Amino acid sequence: MSPDQPVGQSAGQSAGQSAGPGHHSSGAVEEASAAPPISSTGDITLTDVRKSFGVTRALDGCTFTASLGEIHAIVGGNGCGKSTLAKVMSGVLPADSGQVSVIGHTPSTPHEARAAGIATVFQEVLVADECSVVDNLYLGADELWSKALPMKAKIRNATAMMRELAAVELDVEAPAGTLPLSVKQWVTIGRALLWQPKVLILDESSAALDLDSTERLFAKMRELRDQGSAVLIVTHRIAELIRISDRATVLRDGRDVGVLGRGEITEENLLALMTGRSEPPHVPAAVAQEVLRHDVVMKTSKLRVWPEAEPIDFALHKGEVLGIAGLDGQGQSDFVTALAGVSRAAEGLPQVRTAAGGFAEIRGLADAAAEGVGYVSGDRKREGIFANLSIFENLLMPLYRRTALAGKLAVIDWSSLTAAFEWEVERLAVRMGERSNKITSLSGGNQQKVLIGRAFALNPSILVLNDPARGVDVGAKGELYKHLSAFAERGRSVVYLSSEIEEFVGFATRVLVFRHGTLFDEFAGDAIEPASILEAMFGQRRGTGARGTGGHGARRQGDAAAGPEAEEGARRVPGMIPGSAGLPPWMRGTRRAGRDAGDGGGR
Ligand SMILES: Nc1ncnc2c1ncn2[C@@H]1O[C@H](COP(=O)(O)OP(=O)(O)OP(=O)(O)O)[C@@H](O)[C@H]1O
């Protein structure tokens, strides 16, 4: 640390000082208004920063100021330069020009940044799968204090840290590769927190976290802020951002276009600054009741996502936009991946209406593709992109065979492919350079748009989307809803799983809430409203009940009142450890309430 580094309000803790995991006690969740007043001194000051990648101007004269003791959001559309700004502050990328001062430092390497007390959690979940959790947590730490720390102490620290952050009892010596995405995300966050940073930068770090976990992350962020650190967050989850941020800086096309104070951070203001327009995104009116009278195009009968879960009788109608909600790990992801043929349910097969008017079973991806069922995953790294291929190939590869002239792969109809590419790229507003560039040259949100474009390009009759808008900016989300609604209005159907319940409002015609691996409640039309859906997710029935759902019996009536034992029993799944139902083997007896159980399927 340099001598002129401002000292945080708490703490007497210097950057890089090991606080140890035991230091990280969960603070009570309080609202942003409890924040200390923001100092006007620019503890973090970037002035007129420019950074280009070839012809792409990622930062084009960007100025950014944040203070110690605040939670400051960096917001903007996909590809506007947020991650680049985070990387410049973290010493990952050098600025081409402009001044960078982060608590008195201009780090030129990540190592320098870390030594100065700047810790960053990057957008992609960077975990070495083959290494243990403890090694992952201490990754990159060896040269400094952790070298002196005996392995036993590291294991103790790592166990305590994961217990506190992720609320799981982990075997921290086991390889991290088998962990679900949400727990891996906690490993990356834990790695940053081990340093008790003076500046913590979180780039889309709640994207893989469920509701409970996000609350724990918020508590941690507030704790750090109250201790005098600056917490900078990049997120597209507007509702979360409004709740947690003390200030927000909005970027557009590589420049800062406005700073909003606490009371000014509203979706309307953010959208106006991000897009330069003031009208909200167009969302067509719900056609909830009408659509339920349409033909059934997909159904399940007594399908069980887990062996001991209650069976699911479900019907999707022509023209429907069906939202799927639930706390993480309640079976909703297993359900939608089964619908799309990506995974198999424990019992039963989904059925889809065929062109001939009958129903065909979906046993796998080939059946799904043959019957026009498309799938978009929110976990693009694991289930979506081909990192070594171009943007063009990533969007259109599944079409190569279809468009091959005379049915031969060797003769590809490039002109129709190009037309399809241009159509999808334009309507999804993908911000990109050359189409031959690797897909990894795109920002995270733009990569996701390419995956969505791929699904549309296959012209499916049913589109199953598994949390597709992760990392997609609010403006582009509005566009996506518009395209999906238009798709449904043309007589197609949409199944849309989201971890952000606000996404359903004004978009879905019906929402099904999952709990304990089965349908728990249902909302349609005007009843689709975040607070009620949230209550249902936590076991309070507020909707019309899950119609057509078989055999919930007594537990359906008494779910909320049945008490912790009944709750635990209901979650028990064969092959899992009693008392930690829903948990894979790498988790031993747990205090987590099963809410954020690793949702291995489809994520
Ligand atoms: N390594 C790179 N090579 C080429 N272009 C890049 C590279 N990194 C970023 N870009 C481009 O710079 C622009 C800004 O990217 P950046 O990742 O900072 O955007 P972002 O605001 O974080 O977007 P998102 O919200 O989608 O994550 C984009 O157009 C992106 O394609």
TrEMBL record:
Q: Name one Pfam family in it.
A: ABC_tran
Instruction: Provide ranges: composition bias, Low complexity.
Output: 8-20
Supply one GO molecular-function term. Answer: ATP binding
Domain named ABC transporter is located at 44-278, 292-541
Q: Which UniProt keywords apply?
A: ATP-binding, Nucleotide-binding, Repeat, Sugar transport, Transport
Biased composition range(s): Basic and acidic residues: 593-603
Segment Disordered: which positions? 1-41, 543-603
**Is Transport among the key words of this record?**
yes
Keyword flag Membrane: no
**Protein name (record):** Ribose transport system ATP-binding protein
